[in-house]
Design a protein that fits this description.
heterotrimer; A alpha/beta (175); B alpha+beta (657); C mainly alpha (150); A: 175 residues; alpha/beta; five-stranded mixed beta sheet; 6 helices; 39% helix; B: 657 residues; alpha+beta; six-stranded antiparallel beta sheet; four-stranded antiparallel beta sheet; 19 helices; 10 strands; disordered C terminus
């Protein structure tokens, strides 16, 4: 007789999952690289074509790797925040993704350059190594080149304070 | 002013729906005849006002009233008139109004047919339908009002999504909705039976044609969606296991199980509580589909704009309506247990297996569709479950079902000698296997294990469906088949054709991507295609590059194909319109890719053998359903008959149930 | 990581090849070049099946085979490079999952959190068989109807 109650129970369990699901974001994908070493790369420097920018330069302190491009509309939205972040002393490295050198240089000249240096990833292979699929994306990289966090979409004060800043502070505390 | 009238009409419709729900149900409970009788008039009133509201919204589209936000978002003054009318269901709010309209239509039909039913039962049916109507109308009014104003109004609208500007895409939602919503009818019948505490063979006889009717529309609606995806999306695929596609397929599977379960209940008076459960499940899945499309819980190309608030409302509606009926089921279902024996080889046995396999298939699809949600909710991160999972997993219950289908059609009720059954059909099975082994080698030059299995299943079902009609036609002295029997054989014939088409096209499709310059010819699957030219064309609300291709075989001209790459003026996304030369035996499919520079284009050409059998099979299935639903026995007035008349044999040992 | 550098070199090589191919197209289109695919039919068939199983990360539920966007083309190119490099289908899927997460594969992985998913067919079918046997046993013990009319 009790078996007639099984359907209701199943429905309620399903309902609970749906309720939870309403407040999850199905498009949010956690990067599998978090906690792993940042993929090594050495790419041409945007401003100095003879020189290179790579993971060797980033290592040694907390830094951001920001994937950007002139064709990316949302990158413009975070640009001012990046400038203020750079001014406050946070080192930001750019990964200029599938872009044209001249346009990129012009953009930085007009809008300001928050980057210590920008690496030119014309073909996009380094971006693939980092699991990039839509600019802007920003990685927080630790001194030992471990990827601590990744944010997809424009960076803002709110996101910085909620996700990135606490990680830097907590890691500072660790031996 | 007029849109406000539409809103007012909706409010009135909602009030009437609440009346339609409350009065008859209370009346049936307390025996008040005057309340029960209100059901029909409330239903009629609700229908009138929903129609008025719908007409007002359509009018807003037709007159380009861009002060109505919904119209501004989904229409444009350059949009052809037909698409303006169709744009009503091109977005969330309007499609909800279509839902209500379909439900009101079904309700009216049920009310009219209910004259021959006992008043208490009929008013309960309408009462339950009233609850559903009221729920949907409240949802519309409170969270998704199509008559919201946009002030100040825009000069011109945002245009209808170009993907929807297509005849098949216009017909797909209404047909699908008739089916989806139609599952509310057997649901209402089931809940009414639970409330009344009585379920007999007459109940099954009333419920079955409504179920088949809704099922027919679901079949055609789903097939139309698949057909549209094939020729419109430009990639040659016909089913993607997208969550919203699955959401329409699951009620179809349950509906199919329900139709077959009703057959047993109608004939033997058993499987009653199971049938009731299936009816509740089928409509629950319809509501679930509505939830999935509009809540943002899953990602889909079909999703309407997502909103957790709306999602929450639908979830509550779902839990109330389905949960409520399942609670009722938990308490009342045991009343329906009935005696009725059958043996291992019998039609009941095959129908039981059919039901179990269909439910397993439905459960697997539900599980796979929702698994990313479960996985994420448990904190294990995001996951994708797609074609590779479903294609494999779906076959697990479906292949056995196909083989059993061929046998079950010919099984006698209660018991049958297995030798008799197999004796008739053994040769058909062998013939099917032979065809499956030989045909691919001859026609396509290759084969494979799954190909042989698939074609065997398809041919087996086809032959098994044909043998009875054909043999009776050849034998002039044989008893004629009833319309319902014709319906059954034809519907199953449709299934067989579908399986053949799906197997052949999956195995032998050829896809190519070539860089071609004007004037050049290339070969695909034995056909020669010549790129003859490219020109610019203008449509009412788009501009396009149109290519001209000549299709030849062995030097003989077959057809000229003109695929387009369109850019709509308002929403500037590029849209590929493929050109197809279609025959039952094969489709040749050409689509423009990207310009590669220096006069060369990348051209996608595909060869799709027997793909039309897929949709043709669905149409035949629907035709079979139509025949079965209009059998004379449903159109005759029902005579009350005593339930437990001639049970002969030893008195049953009453132990368990 | 030598593997990465090697693959990257290959990728650069492949892109150079692609560039060269495009240039060649510009110069003289002899036979109709395959735009995206392989000459070897077996390899091409494998490629087409594989790209239908990989998700376009930016799309609303489309595979990279169906998606017209740039990013999908990038991943398709990567798949071709990996295939040329001799990776099996499973290895290619793992390569992508390492970078993009399990989300990128339409074929769910086989790991503890998905055992339930992959074993569902067997479990449900077994359950169904059990139900069938129980119902049948019950009904076989019940009497048949002597006179049954339509």
């Amino acid at each position: 007789m009790w078996r007639y109650a099984i359907p209701v129970v199943l429905l309620l369990v399903l309902g609970a999952f749906f309720y939870r699901g309403l407040y999850l974001n199905p498009t949010f994908v956690e990067s599998p690289l978090i906690g792993k070493p940042a993929p090594e790369f050495t790419l041409p420097d945007l401003e100095n074509p003879e020189g290179t920018v790579g993971t060797e330069d980033i290592a040694g302190r907390y830094a951001l790797l920001n994937v950007w491009a002139t064709w990316c509309v949302e990158c413009r939205h975070e640009h001012d925040f990046l400038l203020s972040l750079a001014e406050s002393g946070m080192p930001i490295y750019g990964l200029n993704w599938k872009d044209e050198r001249d346009k990129a240089l012009e953009w930085l000249e007009v809008l300001g350059d928050p980057y210590v240096a920008s690496a030119v990833d014309e073909i996009g292979d380094v971006a693939i190594d980092y699991g990039v699929y839509g600019a802007p994306e920003t990685f927080l990289i630790g001194p030992d080149l471990t990827i601590l966090a990744k944010h997809i979409g424009p960076l803002s004060t709110a996101i910085w304070e909620a996700r990135f800043a606490p990680l830097i502070e907590s890691h500072h505390g660790a031996p | 002013m007029i849109p406000e009238l539409g809103q007012f009409a909706l409010i009135l419709a909602c009030c009437l729906a609440i009346c339609q729900a409350a009065l008859p149900l209370a009346g049936a409970q307390t025996g008040r005849r005057d309340w029960m009788v209100m059901a029909r008039s409330a239903a009629t009133g609700q229908f009138v006002f929903v129609v008025i509201a719908y007409a007002v919204l359509t009018h807003a589209f037709v007159t380009d009233d861009f002060s109505v936000r919904f119209v501004a978002l989904h229409s444009n003054s350059d949009l052809p008139l037909g698409y303006k009318i169709a744009a009503v269901w091109g977005g969330h709010e309007g499609s909800l109004l279509l839902w209500s309209l379909m439900l009101a239509l079904w309700t009216l039909a049920v009310a009219a047919a209910g004259r021959s039913q006992p008043l208490e039962f009929a008013s309960r049916v309408l009462g339950v339908l009233g609850i559903v109507s009221a729920g949907v109308l409240l949802f519309t009014l409170l969270t998704s009002n199509p008559f919201d104003r946009l002030l100040p109004p825009v000069i011109d609208g945002n245009d209808l999504n170009p993907l929807l500007q297509d005849p098949a895409m216009v017909a797909h939602p209404p047909l699908l909705y008739v089916g989806y919503v139609g599952m509310a009818v057997p649901f209402a019948f089931a809940v009414a039976a639970l409330l009344t505490g009585k379920l007999d063979r007459n109940w099954a006889r009333w419920t079955r044609p409504w179920t088949v009717g809704a099922w027919i529309f679901l079949t055609v609606g789903i097939a139309l969606g698949s057909w549209w995806a094939y020729y419109e999306l430009g990639w040659g695929g016909w089913w993607f296991w997208d969550p919203v596609e699955n959401a329409s397929f699951m009620p179809w599977l349950m509906g199919t199980a329900l139709i077959h379960s009703l057959a047993v209940t109608e004939r033997r008076g058993i499987f009653k509580s199971w049938t009731v459960l299936l009816a509740i499940a089928a409509f629950t899945l319809s509501l679930l589909g509505t939830f999935l499309v509009r809540s943002g819980v899953l990602i889909s190309v079909h999703s309407f704009a997502s909103d957790p608030e709306r999602g929450l409302f639908i979830l509550l509606l779902l839990l109330l309506i389905s949960g409520g009926s399942l609670v009722l089921y938990a308490f009342r279902a045991h009343n329906f247990e009935a005696e009725g024996g059958f043996r291992l080889v019998s039609r009941e046995s095959f129908l039981l297996a059919n039901n179990i396999l269909l439910v397993v298939a439905c459960g697997l699809i539900l599980f796979g569709t929702l698994y990313p949600l479960f996985h994420d909710a448990m904190g294990a991160g995001n996951l994708s479950v797609g074609e590779p999972f479903f294609n494999v997993v779906f076959l697990v219950p479906m292949l056995p079902l196909a083989f059993l289908l061929g046998l079950g059609m010919h099984a006698a009720w209660q018991k049958m000698n297995p030798k008799t059954l197999i004796g008739r059909l053994r040769w058909l099975g062998i013939a099917a296997l032979l065809v499956a082994v030989v045909f691919p080698l001859i026609a396509y030059g290759s084969t494979g294990v799954m190909t042989i299995v698939g074609i065997t299943a398809g041919v087996w079902v086809t032959l098994s469906s044909l043998i009875e009609p054909v043999s009776r036609w050849l034998d002039s002295r044989a008893v004629r088949l009833t319309r319902a029997q014709w319906g059954m054989f034809i519907a199953h014939l449709g299934v067989g054709l579908f399986i053949i088409g799906a197997s052949v096209t999956s195995a032998f499709t050829i896809e190519t991507d070539r860089a071609v310059r004007i004037g050049e010819t290339w070969e695909v699957a034995g056909f020669d295609i010549e790129f003859r030219g490219l020109r610019q064309v203008e449509g009412p609300n788009f501009v396009a590059d149109e290519g001209e291709f000549e299709l030849r075989r062995d030097g003989e001209f077959i057809a000229t194909l003109r695929p387009q790459k369109r850019i709509y003026r308002v929403r500037t996304e590029p849209m590929t319109e493929a050109a197809i030369d279609g025959r039952m035996a094969r489709d040749v499919f050409v689509a423009l890719g990207e310009p590669l520079g220096d006069g060369a284009w990348s051209i996608r050409a595909q060869y799709k053998p027997m793909i039309r059998f897929i949709w043709f099979g669905c149409v035949i299935m629907a035709l079979g359903g139509l025949l079965a639903a209009t059998d004379r026995r449903y159109r005759e007035p029902v005579r009350e008959r005593a339930e437990a008349k001639s049970r002969v044999g030893k008195p049953a040992e009453q132990g368990g149930h | 990581m030598p593997a990465l550098t090697r693959l990257r070199a290959l990728a650069r090589g492949a892109s150079t090849l692609a560039m060269a191919a495009l240039l060649a197209l510009g110069a003289a289109l002899h036979a109709q070049e395959i735009v995206e695919g392989f000459e070897d039919p077996a390899l091409d068939a494998r490629y087409r099946d594989l790209i239908h199983e990989i998700r376009c990360m930016k799309c609303q539920n489309q595979s990279i085979a169906e998606s017209p966007i740039d990013q999908a083309a990038d991943i398709r190119r990567l798949v071709r490079v990996l295939m040329v490099d001799g990776l099996s289908d499973a290895e290619i899927r793992a390569y992508l999952a390492e970078r993009y997460g399990d989300f990128i594969n339409y074929r769910p992985p086989f790991k503890p959190s998905t055992w339930l998913l992959w074993s569902a067919p067997v479990i449900l079918l077994a359950g169904g068989a059990f139900v069938f046997a129980r119902v049948l046993r019950e009904r076989m013990g019940q009497p048949l109807d002597e006179d049954i009319d339509r």
